Give the backbone structure.
Amino acid sequence: MSAEHGITINHVSRSFKGRGAVVQALSDVSLACPEGSFTALIGPSGCGKSTILRLALGLDAPDTGDVMISGMTPFKAARSGKTGVAFQDAALMPWRTVEDNIMLPLDVLGHKRADYLAEVAKLVDLVGLNGFEKALPGELSGGMRQRAAIARALITRPEILFLDEPFGALDQILRRQMNIELQRIWMESRATTLLVTHGIDEAIFLADRVVVMQSKPGRISRVIDVPFDRPRKPALFSDPRFHALEKEIAEALDGQ
Amino acid sequence: MASNRTAPERSDALSPIRKLLHSSTLRNWLLLLIIWEIIGQLRLVADGALPAPSAILARLWVDWSDYPPHILATLEGASAGFLIGNALAIAAGVLFAIFPITQRLARGVNVALFALPPIAVSPILVITFSGMTPRIILAAIACYFVTMSATVTGIQQTDRRIVDVVRAYGGRQWKTLVHAQMRSAIPSILAGLRIAAPNAVLGSILAEFGGGGRYGLGVYLIGSLGRGEPDRLWGIGLSATVIAGLAYLLFSLLATRLTGASKAVTVPASPPATKAEKNPLVEAALITVSFALPFLLWGLLLSIMGTPAMIAKTPLGVFDYLFMMPNSPASLGKLAMALSETLPMTMIGMAMGLFFAFALALCSVLYPAIIRGFMPVALVTQTMPLVALTPLLVLILGRGPSVILWITVSVTFFPAFVTMAQGLSMVSRAAIEVPKAYGAGPVKQLWLVSIPASLPYLFAATRLAVPRALLGVMIAEWLATGKGLGNLLNQSRGYLDYGMIWSVAVVSVLISVLFYQIVVAIEHRVLTKRGMAPAQ
Ligand SMILES: Nc1ncnc2c1ncn2[C@@H]1O[C@H](COP(=O)(O)OP(=O)(O)OP(=O)(O)O)[C@@H](O)[C@H]1O
Ligand SMILES: [Mg+2]
């Protein structure tokens, strides 16, 4: 366990000036995700989850405090291609085919597409988009777009993976399937993963630790360890210990 | 600003054309044509000033051998100007979008280029340059503003989420531009080019009005004006319209071919960028520079070209001419006299054009059938070099003051109507249906929803109408009435009074810019008070 290679968030605060009012999106948030860990971030809408991700990606800068990714600034880490990201909404380019969208990070990072063709095929298969490689995002359903965005997040074989409610638009069954797939991918790659989710069950099933946040101001209120061994099986969803943990997190979310 | 007409149609570039071919519309057009034919045959308008379509076609057939050199010359000026103007416009748009401060610095230049009445600068261009150059420059200027603002809007409206994806992989300005912004600005740029294309034709023709050169449709038109042959004039006007219309069509087709797949798949929800605190000192400096820049560029350009000071007046030269010379008082007097004739006409004509447009646009909300019948006609006029057709109006209406009003109303009415009608049609059904659900009658609905909602479009239309109105008045004065700034310009051309030519040009650009700024200021106050954003 070495913080050098994971995600380190140090006393970060960030506020936004809206028209007149000031929104304290994050207030003194500290979080360390060790290398190879899987952390789930859960909290009410507007508590600053996406803001944490944006800070960690270098898309935004904190007012105070600092964020380190693999011992580098977020921007350097992003530029070196160590990070992968799937945003809350798929954010596909409407003019690129599914395949081209998946390969976008390669274009930005200046990697050769030819070296990744097999990887693209594998990922398309993984997210179940076979036959839609040449389709444009406008021709896909919301869930299919989200899956394309997940494939895009994985194309660079990232060491650090940020997922912002990646399964939000999927139905329950597909969501479970994708949870299982994600666990498999994660166990293979051991990428340090930060997953934002609204699903308590999803958080427990996937993560080593569940970080519970509260809003106004956005802050971390509890960190709950998830003790289950891996690989976790679907049967876990109906385990009594699972339910107990679900209850604990739900209570933490309620502010108890 | 001028791109307000591009945005609403972006999704369906060919819709005006499709509407044109709609059966009931086709019937209306046929009807119009038949009425026109009857009026022409019976010589009902001004003793044959409006010839029958058949007569125009027959004349066109007879004159046909005269046309090719004129058409080619106009096309040459227009297309060279189109290429140069748009290349500059896109480059400037990219620069402005990436470094917003440059846009604020260049605001003076941009507004001046938008607001300048082409007819006022055409004599200057003709005396300072030679050959095709004046036409190319005016055609380029006619394209610049539309395409520049379309580029800026297109780039700025890039889905923030897409930009974030590129930036999340370490992409900065350049990569974002290449992978996200330029591509997503293409539909907007194409919509701009679609309007720029007929504009270029118009620009070239207006430069031809200013003289210099034996060929060009504008030259042909002016040359035929004195001979009192309405059917020939109409033939020339129609050819110009067809050329401009074809240019519009070409880019409409291109736009639909290229942009089918570019619609965003979901509505972006990224928050608006928060405004930075303004430093009053920096603001003042920016405004000063933006105001001074057009004058600096003007002086700089002339000194680079090395045109003799006798002919090419720098800002200082114009100042000398108007205030320091022995006969300055006389010149100033002439100028003031001309202004006092031109200004009232411009304002009255503009007010009337806007009023009719607003009234008709509101009617079209109450009676949607009107818009269905009339919109295609109005849309066609967008592609017409309407201003270039003013000689035809002179022919019909004679040389009295009424011709000025007619011309001004006709050049302001159509674009204003299209802007307002399209804006009103975007007012959401739901917003109208709320008062309806409470039993509000049509007038009440107008008062509660449509009129307040249409304010941004009314202002956008007014901004658009300002330079057009002045242009319309000046052309009418130049060609017909022998009064006002337009006439002074034409006379000074004859007397080789270079100082006056420059002074009239400068004064008319300044007036146009001043009007424009007044509209923008009022717009800003009214709309911010109501929490509305200006219509682009
Ligand atoms: N660019 C911005 N400008 C102004 N306010 C912002 C901006 N970004 C975020 N906020 C505010 O910060 C707070 C946290 O936003 P954030 O998007 O991080 O919430 P979230 O936890 O991801 O919510 P959700 O679960 O709904 O996605 C919100 O109150 C939001 O309004
Ligand atoms: Mg979020």
About this structure: Residues A 16, 18, 23, 25, 43, 45-51, 88, 218; B 271, 274 surround adenosine-5'-triphosphate (ligand 1) (CB under 6 Å). The radius of gyration of chain B is 24 Å. Confidence is low (pLDDT under 50) at residues 1-13, 261-275 of chain B. Residues 6-25+40-262+279-529 of chain B form one domain.
